[in-house]
Amino acid sequence: MCIRDRPASYDEKDQVEHLCVTLKDNNSALKLELHYYIYEDCDVITRSAKVINTEEDKIRLTKAQAACIDFVHGEFDVISFYGRHAMERNMQRTSVGHGAFVIGSRRGTSSHQYNPMMILAEKETTEDAGTCYGMSFVYSGGFKAEVEKDQFGQTRMQTVSYTHLRAHE
Question: Could you tell me the pTM of the whole model?
Answer without folding.
Answer: 0.74
